[in-house]
Each structure stands twice: as C-alpha cells, then as structure tokens.
Amino acid sequence: MSKPVRVRFAPSPTGPLHMGGVRTALYNYLFAKKHQGTFILRIEDTDQTRFVPGAQEYIVDALKWCGILPSEGPNIGGDFGPYVQSERQAMYQPYAEQLVAEDKAYYAFDTAEDLDRMRDQAKEMGMPNWQYNSVTRATMKNALSLPQTEVAQRIANGEPYVIRMKMPRNEEVRFHDLIRGWVVVNTNNLDDKVLFKSDGMPTYHLANVVDDYTMQISHVIRGEEWLPSAPLHVLLYQAFGWDAPEFAHLPLLLRPDGNGKLSKRDGDRLGFPVFPTNWTTAEGELYSGYREKGYLPEAFINMLALLGWNPGTPQEIFTLEELVEAFSLERVSKSGAKFDPEKTKWFQQSWLRMQADADIAKGLKATNPTLNISDSALETLVGLMKERATFAEDILTDGAYFLANPSAFDTETIRKKWKTETTGYMNEWLDRLSGISEFNSANIEAAFKGYLEEKGLGIGAVLLPYRLSVTGVGAGPGMFEISAFLGKEEVLHRMKTNLPTIEAMLHEA
Ligand code: GLU
User: Fold this and answer.
1) How far apart are CA 476 and CA 463, in angstroms?
2) Is 42's C-beta closer than 6 angstroms to any atom of ligand 1?
3) Which one of 36, 109, 166, 491 has the fewest CB atoms closer than 10 angstroms to its CB?
4) Which atom of ligand 1 is found nearest the CA of 208?
5) What is the per-residue pLDDT across 186-230, written as a single tens digit (0 to 9) for each?
6) Stretch 105-122: mean pLDDT, rounded?
7) pTM of the predicted model, to two decimals?
8) Does residue 12 have its Cβ closer than 6 Å to ligand 1?
9) d(CA 446, CA 74)
C-alpha cells in the first residue's frame, strides 16, 4: 500500500448507533491501526429532516466506551476539518456547479408534486418503479428539457431547483470491491440522483464523495447497504477526474435465526441489546444497551469483531490490540453474519473471568454505593463467585447469601434431598464446627472429613444440607471457602436459625 491509509466512519446522526454501525467503526479502526493509518470520524448530517438531537453525542460516547477512538473528528480536530458535514456546507455547491458547467449534471425544477404525479401515472401504466433517468428526464422540468431562456428565467426568479447527476446512457461502471470482488453495473439501471438539494445542502452522495476526496480517504469500508450507491460514487469520482478510494462493503448482520437483517426493534423483542449503550427516544421509549446490561466493552468488541470476520485460527478471545494484529479485510466474509446472543454471553463470561478481582470489586462498589462490605472481603467474594457469573452484578445477586442470611430457600432441593436423619447430622456437624478454633477453610475441611469418616457417611449426605442451611441454595462455590468467608459466628448463627425453618418447611409439605 503506497498511499497512507486514511479511513473514516461516517455515521448519520439519525438515531443511536446500531451494533452493525459499531462493527463498521471497529473494522475501520482495526484496518487503520493495522496499517499505521488514521481512523477518522465524520458526521454526515446533510439530511436535516432526519436529524435527531443527541445522536451525535451518542455516537461519540458509544465509540469511546468501546475504545474505538478516532484520531480526527468533531471535537478532536485534524488537518481536514471540519468533520461535521453541515459545517462544510459552503464547500459542496462549487463542486455541483462544476459538474453542471461540464454537462455532467443539470438543474431540475420539478416539485415534489410533479414527481409524485409521474410516479402515480407510471404505476397506473403498470410501471411501479418509475425513475428520473436518461429516458424520462426529457419529459420533466429541467435544464435539459426546457428552453435555455426559461431555465435562466426560473433561476433569476429564485425558483427552487436541485442539481441532478446526468447519468450516461448504457455505459458499464466497474469497480473492484476488496470483499466482493468485481462489481459491474450498467448505467441504464441507475437514475439521475439528486446531488444538490433545493435547501442548499448537498445530498449524501455528493457530500460523501467530495469529503472522501478532500479528506484523502484511501479506503471506504462501510456496510453492504451502501453497495448500490457505490457505482454512482465511482461515476462521480470519474466525473471530477479524481482517483476513487478502494471500496470494501461489509456483510450484513442477520437476526439469530438468519431471517433478515438485524433491526433496532429485534433486540428488546428477542431479549438482547442491539445498541452499544442505552438510548431513549424523544417519546421516552428506551432501547437497551450493552453497557447498561453489564457487558464489558472488551467482550462486546470481541464478539463484534468475529461477526463477519475470522482470524483463520481457532482463537476466539482477542484484545483490541490482538485484533489489530490479526485483522485483514481478506478474511471478512461476503455472506451475512448471524448474530448469536448466547455466544455474546459467552464472550462476556470469558472476559469477566479475565478481569482482576480487585477491578471487579471496585466496579461493584461504584455501581452499588450502599454495599456494606470491606474492599478486601468483596475482593474475596468476587474471587469465589466470578467463575459462576456472566455479569459482574451476578456476583452480588447470585451470591447475596455472602452478604446476608438467606430469607428464601430452595424448597424443591430441600424436599428432594433432606432425609429424616439429616437434621440430626446437621446438629452434630454444627457441634464440630463450633469446636474449630482457627476457622479457615483447611481446618473446616479437615473437620468435615473427620466427621464423615467417623460416621461412615458420604459427602453428599452432609455437604448439600450444610450448603442449603447456610446459603439457602443447592449450588455455589466451595462450602469451606464460603464458611471461612462468613466466619464461625455467622455460620453457627445461620445454622441455628435456618435448621428450624427448614424443618418447618418439610412438615408443611
Ligand atoms: N452516512 C452514511 C451512513 O449513515 C455513511 C455511508 C458511508 O460510509 O459512505 O451510514
């Protein structure tokens, strides 16, 4: 690669960033870092009708949470700014006018009603997909169909007009996509797209091409939904006499069942987030985000990276740095990538396990300010529960018995496993426990083994009831560790309080 790599993520602030958008940003970032290039954030807000307040801030914040940090962009700066298209507005018109002067584009005066009328007429005649193109433009109100004097008059009168691309007739547009290979389209299938609107704003197409050129973008890496626009963009580069950047169109993200594109409504409907962070609409509707659900950004990014790309090795867990190292566009697949919520949880679980206990404990203290436990005790608790948790908060919810005597008991297990002699064993074991002077897990375990041996009992006959009477549940980390954590006094107190409760429960049945 001779030219320096400069790539951009160019979202439109029309709402929150879908996880597909985050993946596009991620692949751009990885590609840039891999090639010692520059990753740029550009906000494409030329469609003022679709502008959503707060969306730009959301995008910036979400990328920050993910650790996908642009080196140029709004509020960051750079040599190619501004990085928000509405702030570049004055720049675009001369380019559109240049194409008009060179007979590659033209003024058109058709109103929205004119266009609707044409569409309706065509539909009545059995042509549902009417297009403004090289055939129909002669029947419309534009500089190619109207007399020159009328065109001049309309402009002099301040009549609103748009500038349309004069799509050449029957020409082949060819370009090479780094993921999809050669793409060939005949211009007869393309319409005379609006390049410049009557509100004085460029359309996405013109602004996108002008900005990619003036920002010296080397590679355009974006979602597959933009593939149909790429031939027009290639023609625009040709019309301006500019070298086009390389293109790479990323595969779609599909629903878990593979049935169609993953949409913003799927998430909360199917029980998983589709957005990186929470988003509340102006109407107060909440779309949940990975961050607020308790996902680690590392897990989210790791999962996203593998949706449509594979390293060619069995490795699944990657840090961002490792992804930079391993990433290549060659290994991005052409076909859609099925989102798998269960696998996403697996990534989260794996990443949680890799966090230091102290860090998790610190996070829990921050999210649960009323937590009444010392830092070191919480760290021990985290160490004991981490392997069983998916989210950090699970440690406190599933391990609530570390913090307080349980008020609820697993009745089903108790009914199944509690034999007539069990309470008797528990009372004897309680006695042994009270005799342990240094109440650490090794000593408790030794006492336990001694008791079993003496009585000729199997582990299950005593350990499970012991667990149930101290924690209320039938599974958890090692009982000797739990006991040591709680301390002798608390364990004895719980057994004395809970054994009668359990007995009562059994008699109730
Ligand atoms: N503004 C477009 C979007 O919202 C960007 C498409 C592109 O990257 O060219 O996705």
Assistant:
1) 12
2) no
3) 36
4) 9
5) 999 999 999 999 999 999 999 999 999 999 999 999 999 999 999
6) 96
7) 0.93
8) yes
9) 64
What 8-state DSSP symbol labels residue 160?
-
Residue 384 to residue 477: CA distance in whole angstroms: 6
Pocket test for ligand 1, best of 27, 41, 44 (most atoms within 8 A of CB): 44
In angstroms, rounded to a whole number, what is the distance separating the alpha carbons of residues 467 and 463?
6
Mutate to test the pocket of ligand 1, among 8, 9, 12 (most ligand atoms within 8 A of CB): 12
In the chain, % helix, strand, coil (3-state, to 5) comes to 50, 10, 35
Q: What is the number of the ligand 1 atom nearest to the C-alpha of 229?
A: 9
| CA atoms of 375 and 366, how far apart (whole Å) | 12
| Confidence (pLDDT) at 259 | 87
Show the tokens assigned to 204: 């996405």
Q: What is the mean pLDDT of residues 159-175?
A: 97
Q: How far is the CA of 44 from the centre of ligand 1 (A)?
A: 7
CA dihedral 224, 229, 231, 236 (to 10 degrees): -140
> Does ligand 1 lie within 6 Å of residue 208's CB atom?
yes
The domain at 279-355 falls in which architecture?
A: Orthogonal Bundle (1.10)
Among residues 408, 438, 425, which one has the least CA distance to residue 466?
425
**Residues near 449 by beta carbon (within 8 Å), at least 6 away in sequence:** none
Q: Backbone phi, then psi, for 280, in 5-degree steps?
A: -110, 125
Q: Three-class SS of residue 173? A: strand
222 in ligand 1 pocket by Cβ < 6 Å? yes
Q: Which two tokens stand for residue 505?
A: 């429960």
| Contact (CB, 8 A) for 402 and 425 | no
For a substitution probing ligand 1, which of 8, 47, 84, 204 has the most ligand atoms within 8 Å of its CB?
204
Active site residues: 264
Task: List pLDDT tens digits, range 466-503.
Answer: 999 999 999 999 999 999 999 999 999 999 999 999 99
Q: Which of the four pLDDT bands, split at 50, 70 and 90, describes residue 509? A: low
Per-domain boundaries in the chain = 6-74+207-253, 91-203, 279-355, 356-398, 405-508
- In ligand 1, the atom with minimum distance to the C-alpha of 204 is 1
Beta-carbon count within 10 A of 135 CB? 10
Token duo for residue 15: 């709402």
Task: Return the half-sphere exposure (C-beta side, CA atoms, 13 A cut-off) of residue 232.
Answer: 25
- β-pairing, 162-165 with 105-108? antiparallel
**CATH number for the domain formed by residue range(s) 6-74+207-253:** 3.40.50.620
Give the whole-angstrom CA distance, residue 175 versus residue 162: 28
Class of domain 405-508: mainly alpha
